[in-house]
Amino acid sequence: MWTVRDAEHIVILISIAGGLFCARVWSVAAVTAIAALLFPTLLALFVSPDWKRNFVALAAYYMVICGVFAFGAHLLRRAIGIVVRSVRRSRRPSDQGKV
Question: Once rounded to an integer, what is the mean pLDDT over residues 31-53?
């Protein structure tokens, strides 16, 4: 049997991975919605069927949590990309010496 913590870890990992690998904001939002709906489903299937009563409340709560992790990972990915591009530009030889 799974525990609630196991389901939380799976959903948060999905959110972070989705935030890192999705290139557009709308796809990060889709991953967030999928992960948030997955959490109560995992609880109902693998932990206890009693979780079905709070499905909507749990999905809404984890929508916020998954959104924080997914969009945070997406912003981190974007920041790393900006730093890498700026370092590559600064190390390029300049064209000023050519005639």
Answer: 87
Calculate the average pLDDT of the chain: 86
Q: Distance (Å, rounded) from C-alpha 59 to C-alpha 38?
A: 8
Instruction: Please tell me the predicted confidence (pLDDT) of residue 79.
Output: 94
d(CA 69, CA 78): 14
First vs last C-alpha separation in the chain? 73
pLDDT of residue 36: 87
Contacts (Cβ under 8 Å, ≥6 apart) of 11: 35, 36, 38, 39, 42, 62, 66
Residue bearing tokens 């904001």: 25
- Rounded CA-CA distance 3/88 in Å is 46
Q: How far, in Å, CA of 10 to CA of 95, rounded?
A: 50
| pTM attached to this predicted model | 0.76
